TrEMBL record:
Domain Aminoglycoside phosphotransferase per the UniProt entry, residue ranges: 88-303
Protein name listed in UniProt: Aminoglycoside phosphotransferase domain-containing protein
Region (Disordered): 1-40
Annotated Pfam families: APH (PF01636)
PANTHER family: AMINOGLYCOSIDE PHOSPHOTRANSFERASE-RELATED-RELATED (PTHR21310)
Biased composition (Polar residues): 29-40
Top-level taxon in the UniProt lineage: Eukaryota
């Protein structure tokens, strides 16, 4: 197995100790991570559990007044620099956190705010996984500082700022006819290669066990809720548990889509959002990443033919690095589209249902979804 996937992909190799005058040269260390593990819940997570945490975390974080954000910045800077010396720019407010760009002319960083139920255990997981991945030269942003405040209800990160846009930003430009689909082919191949390189990193089990991530197929499969006790989806779950029973396992991202990858030219510069990660059969992760592309309406690629080209670029990039191909993926793909439909609402589930049923037929299963 390749121990330097980043070099293989041509991505910039991250420094384990960021050189930064404001923040010092101390990235989050192994001792920082392990010192907080006991405060997290001992319950092993399922992906359904993570969905609930992501929904509840930072419910009110998106529209904080600037004064409150500056107070949080003051808390994590801990006297090294005054928060008023920084310019603040809100970047996003997802289901799990609010994100701000902070800069003072010398330094640019990212302030991430996680609040509410599950915030600290989410933060501890991300700390541990980030440290592990950077030790293996996988492209993830450095964590400069981490702090729990407000009596343990809020976790703060000061992260490396990754210059550049996401693959999703580039795809959006294509959709609005400000570029050509051919521009997406090399970077989409790198997108697939980056996922394959993750699946080739050795010795991830010990790191993930400490953080109680999902490690059984039965815990990885559920989406928003549990599957029906009868019918095709229940049969699909049982088939996947059997297919994954004795297969090789690896670290899984489980949310590997274009919006979570920062790009630099034709290469993937940094992979974001690790709170849904798990340990299991890499075919599950591959199928989910494929599903994100497959569920995208053809008009986003200016037609079905272009969409097929992009999906093939992802697939070829993945298998080129992996050095092998997977056999029949029908069951895995059916599960991925079903789970994404559950996660993205009733209309999406309805639109994806025919494809799910077709893939289930190919897998030799009943089609009642």
């Amino acid at each position: 197995m390749a121990r330097d996937p980043t070099g293989r992909l041509g991505c910039s190799k991250p420094s384990l100790r960021p050189n930064n005058n404001l923040l010092g040269d101390k990235a989050v260390s192994k001792s920082n991570v392990e010192s907080g593990i006991n405060s997290a819940s001992g319950e092993r997570r399922t992906l359904s559990h993570w969905f609930e945490l992501r929904t509840m975390c930072a419910a009110d974080a998106h529209d904080k007044p600037e004064s409150e954000v500056r107070e949080l910045l003051r808390l994590i800077l801990d006297g090294e620099q005054g928060p008023d010396d920084f310019e603040l720019q809100k970047l996003t407010g997802g289901r799990a956190h609010a994100v701000y760009k902070v800069e003072n002319g010398k330094t640019t960083a990212v302030l991430r705010v996680l609040e509410g139920h599950g915030a600290v255990e989410t933060a501890l997981l991300e700390q541990g996984v980030t440290l592990f991945l950077r030790q293996h030269n996988y492209p993830v942003p450095a964590i400069y500082k981490y702090k729990v405040v407000k009596g343990g209800s809020t976790a703060l990160f000061l992260n490396e700022f990754c210059h550049g846009g996401t693959l999703g930003d580039l795809a959006q430009q294509i959709a609005t006819k400000k570029g050509t689909v051919k521009e997406l082919v090399p970077i989409t191949k790198s997108f697939g290669a980056t996922l394959a390189s993750l699946h080739m990193i050795p010795d991830s089990k010990d790191c993930l066990e400490k953080h109680k991530v999902a490690m059984r197929t039965e815990d990885i499969l559920p989406a928003r809720g549990t599957p029906p006790s009868k019918g095709g989806i229940s049969e699909l779950f049982m088939l996947l548990v059997e297919l994954c029973k004795d297969s090789p396992k690896s670290l899984l991202h489980m949310d590997f889509h274009a919006g979570n990858v920062i790009i630099d030219g034709d290469h993937c510069k940094s992979v974001l959002d690790w709170e849904s990660c798990a340990y299991g059969d890499p075919r599950l992760d591959f199928a989910m990443a494929w599903g994100f592309l497959e569920m995208t309406p053809p008009e986003m690629f200016l037609g079905q033919e272009n969409k097929n080209v992009i999906i093939q670029a992802f697939v070829s990039g993945y298998f080129q690095v992996l050095g092998q191909t997977y056999s029949d993926m029908s069951a895995f793909k059916a599960w991925a589209l079903w789970a994404l439909g559950q996660d993205h609402g009733e209309e999406c589930a309805k639109r994806l249902k025919p494809a799910v049923e077709s893939l289930m037929r190919q897998a030799g299963l009943g089609t009642r979804v």
